[in-house]
Design a protein that fits this description.
The protein is α+β, with helices and mostly antiparallel strands and about 250 residues long. About 20% of the residues lie in helices and about 30% in strands. The protein has five helices and ten strands, in the order E-H-E-E-H-E-E-E-H-E-E-E-H-H-E.
Length: about 250
């Protein structure tokens, strides 16, 4: 049976899930996709995701691929699959991809947003998608600190201890701080990120915003190549994978 490769663009609210990747101790985005695709297409399906987001992290456009011998046109799979998926996971697009296309083997850019809700009290309707703080944050100081992180650097200080990676060198293309009413958005675009890297950047920038660090300390944090030199890992709920851009 001739098979085709199908690419999915997947949006999800990560609140109820143990992250993207299959886990033995809970339901994940990957396990739900596998389950529903297997039921829909009548054959065992295992998807491969572009980004293994952590528990509680959201996405507007994560990408996954799978191979199938089903005759259903690739572009129709999204419609049928969304009828089976839980309502906090929705496929935004399904399309046929070249048989050798793999989301982790092509050059790409990922854009993440970390959202901080600033107020006297939390807002219940934003509690699942923002990190709340009652601190007055010095946004200009945070912007000055962010400039140190743009470009290619060794981000070992911003990688969770114990992560198994060949290299901790990464390139950040842009790192912006955008004020949207009471929300402060840290938007970062890069070719790839280390485990918890964006959340550690957010936690460190918030320390700068609170006056607990000076912006110019960021150079020393990078140079230390030591997780203890950076700030805390910000909570997962504020983080969303906004989009993937693949080079053809």
């Amino acid at each position: 049976m001739e098979k085709k490769r199908v690419r999915l663009t997947v949006a999800y609210d990560g609140t109820a899930y143990h992250g993207w990747q299959l886990q033995s101790n809970g339901i994940t985005i990957e396990s739900e996709l596998n389950r529903c695709l297997t039921e829909l297409l009548g054959e065992p399906i295992q998807v491969t995701g572009a980004s293994r987001t952590d528990a509680g992290v959201h996405a507007l456009g994560n990408v996954a691929v799978f191979d199938t011998g089903a005759r259903m046109p690739a572009e129709k799979i999204s419609y049928a699959l969304n009828q089976r998926l839980p309502e906090d996971i929705r496929v935004q697009r399904s399309e046929e991809a070249p048989p050798d296309w793999h989301p982790r083997h092509v050059k790409s850019r990922k854009t993440y947003e970390y959202r901080i809700y600033r107020g006297t009290f939390p807002l219940p309707t934003r509690r699942l998608y923002t990190h709340f703080t009652y601190y007055d944050l010095d946004v200009e100081a945070m912007r000055a600190a962010a400039e140190y992180l743009v470009g290619e650097h060794d981000f070992k200080s911003f990688c969770q201890t114990g992560a198994q990676v060949e290299s901790t060198v990464r390139r950040i293309h842009s790192l912006e701080l955008l004020e949207q009413g009471p929300e402060l958005v840290i938007r970062v675009c890069g070719g790839g990120f280390l485990y918890n890297m964006v959340r550690i950047i957010a936690g460190t920038l918030m320390e700068v915003g609170q006056g607990r660090r000076r912006p110019e300390e960021m150079g020393a944090v990078l140079a230390a190549r030591d997780r203890r030199a950076a700030g805390p890992t910000a909570p997962a709920r504020g983080l969303t994978l906004v989009k993937y851009e693949f080079e053809s």
